[in-house]
Amino acid sequence: MMASSYSTKEEDGHPSGASSHGGPGAVKSKKPDNTAFKQQRLPAWQPILTAGTVLPAFFVIGLIFIPIGIGLYVTSNNIKEYEIDYTGADINSSCYSCAKSYSWNSTTSCVCSVEFILEQPFESNVFMYYGLSNFYQNHRRYVKSRDDSQLNGDQSALMNPSKECEPYRTSDGKPIAPCGAIANSLFNDTLELYYVDSNGTRNAVPLVKKGIAWYTDKHVKFRNPGGNNNLTVAFQGTAKPVNWAKPVYELDPSDPDNNGFINEDFIVWMRTAALPTFRKLYRIIQKKSSTTPTLPSGKYFLNITYNYPVLSFDGRKRVILSTISWMGGKNPFLGIAYITVGSMCFFLGVVLLIIHHKYDTRNSSADIPN
Amino acid sequence: MLRRLNRLLGGDERRVDSRTIYVGRQPGSTNEAFIPPKFCDNRIVSSKYTVWNFLPKNLFEQFRRIANFYFLIIFLVQVIVDTPTSPVTSGLPLFFVITVTAIKQGYEDWLRHKADYEVNKYRVTVLEDGRRISKESEKIKVGDVVEVVEDETFPCDLILLQSSRDDGTCFVTTASLDGESNHKTHYTVPDIEKDLEMLCATIECEQPQPDLYKFVGRMQIYRNNQESVVRSLGPENLLLKGATLKNTKKICGVAVYTGMETKMALNYQGKSQKRSAVEKSINAFLLVYLCILLSKALVCTTLKYVWQSKPGQDEPWYNEKTPREKETNLYLKMFTDFLSFMVLFNFIIPVSMYVTVEMQKFLGSLFITWDKDFFDPEIKEGALVNTSDLNEELGQVEYVFTDKTGTLTQNNMEFIECCIDGFQYTYRDTASELDGFCVTDGPVSKLPQKASTEREELFLRALCLCHTVQVKEPTEQDQGQGGGLLDQVDGLGVDGEVLQPPQEEKGFIASSPDEIALVKGAVRYGFTFLGLENKVMKILNRNKDVEMYELLHVLNFDPVRRRMSVIVRSRSGDTLLFCKGADASIFPRVRQEEVERIRMHVDRNAKEGYRTLCVAYKYLSAEEYAQADAGLREARLALQDREEKLMAVYNQVETGMSLIGATAVEDRLQEEAAETMESLQGAGIKIWVLTGDKMETAKSTCYACRLFQRNTELLELTVRTLEDGRMRREARLHELLIEYHKKAVQDVPPGVTRSWCSDSQDYGFIIDGASLSMVLNCSHESNSSLYKNLFLQICQNCTAVLCCRMAPLQKAQIVKMVKNSKGSPITLSIGDGANDVSMILEAHVGIGIKGKEGRQAVRNSDYAIPKLKHLKKLLLAHGHLYYVRIAHLVQYFFYKNLCFILPQFLYQFFCGYSQQPLYDAAYLTMYNICFTSMPILAYSLLEQHICIDVLLENATLYRAIAKNAMLRWGPFIKWTLQGVFHGLVFFFGVRYLFSNPALQNNGQVFGNWSYGTIVFTVLVFTVTLKLALDTRHWTWLNHFVIWGSLAFYVVFSFFWGGIIWPFLSQQRLCSVFAKMLSSLSVWLVIILLILLSLLPEILLVVFRNPFAPRPRQAAAAVTPLSYKHLKEHE
């Protein structure tokens, strides 16, 4: 239907017509060039896939994939992960009251704490994630609601944010910095971890808040307007996002390298997640010495300053403590997939070999090309 | 008012049947008011555009194509509605396509402009008021007297007034018009003063019409104080624009048609477009994909509103709508959502496919022109491709309709024998008689007998006179010196025996090779035609005397009458009419008692495959001649219905003749005609021979070509078999049809197609023109369709069909009938002459042979080849390969876009049906343009899944792709399922990987753009590697584009993510690709998914191709990956 009229051939009659204007010189009598290309005789490699060539490949794939798969699976199993749901949806949970009594306008923050016990010590660096469920960070309206040039420190974009940021573009006539829905909904629970040692005292576990964002994001993509000195001045004339308690230049007043747009918590949040259930890196617990585990087994308290409402859209909040291997976080999928595909290849190889063998004995003349 | 408007538009004269031209643009007679009539000027405009209207006109024309229009609509939707992808993603490809096409068309138009300019600015000499003025060609006006010198082309259509040759003739070649390179004679208008300045005349002629060979007009010459003289004008007086003057120093002519009204310009009209079956398949697939697209959009829209109806989902606090969105009407919102989904998924119908298909066809056709196997050293030409649209159709041919003369046979006539008064004469090289004229004891005359010498000589004189052959003058020779020529001939005559060699060097020129053969035949028997001068034909007789005959009239040959005559007056004053023609057209016009003796010879000769002509004569009495002369003159002067009137006079004159004898001329088979026919039949192609020739001649040619074998049972449906019984013809026809149908169709075991099983009885079917018209135009309405069906069914079950005595239109009728029969088979017509044009135009593929009968067939064909034998390679190798290539191209394009868009569709289920694109805009745009287009283009140009030599050797391979085998629903579903499978693997593989998005060893997480990029990377690699798996013929070009486009993808991705692009509002992909590659898990998942997707592919190949081919066999018949391996090979 569409191709029917899509053809440039209607012009084809013309060039030949035009050439005959030229008179007798138009008659061509050229012998075609005898080049390999024009005669379609270019030297060519003609691979043939037969059982003979494919069989070894199947075995090789099987033999490579199964060990990789086992390796992946073991690695993934060795990763220690502990997950705490602190949404407070359940009446028994400690954050229930905070979740229920939540309002945006309250000045006092609601604090709750969750107690948990680690059965096994976490030996290497521990990564602390917060996880949200049923939170559509990949919703189109949400994804595009940002202004990357504003985040890159562009002055004009700072004062005049992109239209994509609507309805989080201006507040009280002043441009919002950072504008948009993503920035506006920045995850603002504060999480603190305490280890209860054998004699009952609570020791705060030191949480490192740098190194959680992509290096390129922090150093290339995100930049404060007007350099990093005196952000208060740089952000003058802008308004804070409506849901924020404090303006962007007070995200981390203690460290100028982690303040404003280049605040790492902010950057991490701004990288929108792929799926509605996701986790984001919150803090890193660095290993102190080679002798003691990063998180010894025992009792812990998680202190939560509960600011982030999720029950309104039936969401969940989690905290995940996880060690990391060379393949990243815990995910048995890759290992299982590799083992499955590897064994499938191997199995097919065997089946093919049997068929091949049978065929071979029936027709002794048919030999395998190699 | 209206009249004036009409005149302004140039439409005024259209309504008048003829135009009047004042020679020299002077008023004809002083007493008439001279109104210079308005004709168009001599400017040739073949260009379509000017600088000013190029843009709007070209754009308008491009958007008239539905595909372009569809993409324009999508683009506009993107601009107007808030859609997920920016307008750039579809605007850029569209812009690209439109620009490329515009540039191509602009370039072509520029070439036309240039050619026009050259023609229009050419300096010509115009005689004005006795002065010779040099003018630009475009300034010539109707009525101007133009002077043309030798080797110049005529600037417009001229009536020849004066020639530098004494006999008032001039020679032209029309090579650039119709390709016929022989010299044609044109004549001046008789009775014109030498001094053109004094000439005062008007010409009345018909309005311009495109037929090159028709012209009707008359010229009124006014002399001082005398009654005006009227002369008839015919095509022999008209010199066409574009033809070249030869052998004549200069001529003067008056312009009658100028500029766009010349016959050449009127012939520019393009032929009707033919569409290939593949294109129809594409359209069907497109429809399916359009349905998929619509249903996808519909499903997503529905689910979106179902999902949103749950509380808290539509507008959670973190993701509020803009005030405008809130205000929008719900139904309007639904509609825009639907449109948005359409836009999001519209890549499933790729704009680039059309571009690629176009390019493939255009470039592919070049390989046909380049093929040196099609080069014929004799005519120094290769194949010619007039349309590139039909390359793949060459691989689908089921019926070949071939002309006989010039196609199956060489059209290189040789005089074999003749019979005079029933005595047979055969020429022998080593003749004992002095004149090389001897009598063989044929089966008819037991005793060597000779006809009387008088009859012999009459016969030979008839051969020498009754023709339109010209003697080709040696170029060095001074023209117009009859004496010189005579001297030369005399000199030759002295030599006697060695008459031939120089004679042949001198050569004869004629429109039909039969005539030359006859004239040359007469030379062997001692009668030499010396040429025509001043209407006097000279013959050198056996006694070396020159006989002179005044040529009074030529009654031209035409295919309807199938005969020609001349009326001559001998020196003794006798007026004679000589006539030669096909036996069927001569026998009724001669005395019946003479017929029988000759008929035996004619039939026997025809059976041996010779072309036979009968020769008759009659004496015309003075009264008879006067009557005929008057009739002919009157008919020639007629402006209206001249043809019909002439025909009537011809028929009237050519009666009551007496038969002298018959000639037999052999037409040799083309080189490798039999082999070609055999391999075409082996390829499952049914061959029909359509010829105007006699049945016996055609039958013997069919036997010689092995179309009919010795064991073939012939079913005849001809006038002879019809007149067999005592029954009426219609009843007999009915009976025969039923009988043959029973034999050929019903007795065949069911389920077996006739042509495929070789051991059972073969049938050949013969029908002639008269019987065919009875079958087609039956008086009873009900019977007519029944007969047609019976006829078709019989024919379809015969290995070969011979249709003889066909008129050109009947040929086309047959082609049309087969074309429209059940299953609409693909037909191919091949022919070389003007009489084949209608069937060439009618068939799906028309092939012209660059033969001896001029270039009309070539001009109207889709492909032209020098020889019949080239048809084999054209179909078996080129056709097969192009079909496989384009079929693969089409399927692959649909496949790759399905697995491109499917993940994006699936992603909607995970992003709240919000039309969030999975891939970045750059990837969406570039996928079809850059990343995956080149490998398939290279594949579709270079692939040889079976190498050419094997294809040529095993004609049966052609059957594997018959009936559009690779583009039927079966393969289409296979490809679609493959696409779905791949799409699912890509999406869910990455989906499960992202169940924990911490994929790096520093614990950092990946976002949605990384997700899309991983899917896209797997996609690009899988799709390209799948093509690599399908490629059976890896040239360096394939390697280059396949690995090159993968490398390009990687480099581009690095580059795209490596810089903050100032023109982008969102830096979505900033360092995403590099980050992705730094994760080992991603590497592992990419490898895994690619392998998993290709696994079934590899398995299919292996299972389909089980272990059979041994190395050498395998090397020869490389197994097709994409369609069933032929059983014959196992």
Automatic annotation (TrEMBL), chain A:
Q: Which keywords does UniProt give here?
A: Cell membrane, Cytoplasmic vesicle, Disulfide bond, Glycoprotein, Golgi apparatus, Lipid transport, Membrane, Transmembrane, Transmembrane helix, Transport
Which is one Gene Ontology cellular component term of this protein?
transport vesicle membrane
Transmembrane segments annotated in the record for this chain: 48-74, 333-355
Enumerate the Gene Ontology biological process terms.
Answer: phospholipid translocation
Q: How does it sit in the membrane?
A: Multi-pass membrane protein
- Keyword Secreted recorded: no
User: Annotated region Disordered: where?
Assistant: 1-32
InterPro entries (UniProt xref) = CDC50/LEM3_fam
Q: Does the keyword Acyltransferase apply?
A: no
Instruction: Give the main localization category.
Output: membrane
Record's subcellular location: Apical cell membrane; Cytoplasmic vesicle, Secretory vesicle membrane; Golgi apparatus; Membrane
List, alphabetically, the Pfam families matched. Answer: CDC50
**What family does the Swiss-Prot or TrEMBL record give for this protein?**
Belongs to the CDC50/LEM3 family.
- Protein name, UniProt field: Cell cycle control protein
Source organism: Monopterus albus (Swamp eel)
UniProtKB/TrEMBL annotation, chain B:
Q: Which reaction does it catalyse?
A: a 1,2-diacyl-sn-glycero-3-phospho-L-serine(out) + ATP + H2O = a 1,2-diacyl-sn-glycero-3-phospho-L-serine(in) + ADP + phosphate + H(+); ATP + H2O + phospholipidSide 1 = ADP + phosphate + phospholipidSide 2; a 1,2-diacyl-sn-glycero-3-phosphoethanolamine(out) + ATP + H2O = a 1,2-diacyl-sn-glycero-3-phosphoethanolamine(in) + ADP + phosphate + H(+)
Positions bound to ATP = D403, K404, T405, E515, F557, K580, R611, T691, G692, D693, R805, K811, N835, D836
Signal peptide position in this chain?
none
Quote the protein name from its UniProt record. Answer: Phospholipid-transporting ATPase
Q: Which GO terms describe its biological process?
A: phospholipid translocation
Record Gene3D superfamilies: Calcium-transporting ATPase, cytoplasmic domain N, Calcium-transporting ATPase, cytoplasmic transduction domain A, HAD superfamily/HAD-like
Q: Give the species this sequence originates from.
A: Monopterus albus (Swamp eel)
* Residues annotated as transmembrane: 63-81, 284-307, 338-357, 972-994, 1009-1028, 1040-1061, 1081-1103
Per UniProt, the keywords (alphabetical) are:
ATP-binding, Cell membrane, Endoplasmic reticulum, Endosome, Lipid transport, Magnesium, Membrane, Metal-binding, Nucleotide-binding, Phosphoprotein, Translocase, Transmembrane, Transmembrane helix, Transport
Q: The P-type ATPase A domain covers which part of the protein?
A: 120-263
Listed under GO cellular component are:
early endosome; endoplasmic reticulum membrane; plasma membrane; recycling endosome
What Enzyme Commission number does this protein have? Answer: 7.6.2.1
The protein's predominant localisation is membrane
Membrane association type: Multi-pass membrane protein
Domain P-type ATPase C-terminal, by residue range, is 858-1109
- EC top class, in one word? translocase
* Domain P-type ATPase N-terminal stretches: 36-90
Pfam families with a match to the protein in the record: Cation_ATPase, E1-E2_ATPase, PhoLip_ATPase_C, PhoLip_ATPase_N
InterPro entries annotated for this entry?
A: ATPase_P-typ_cyto_dom_N, ATPase_P-typ_P_site, ATPase_P-typ_TM_dom_sf, ATPase_P-typ_transduc_dom_A_sf, ATPase_P-type_domA, HAD-like_sf, HAD_sf, P-type_ATPase_IV
Q: Which cofactor does it need?
A: Mg(2+)
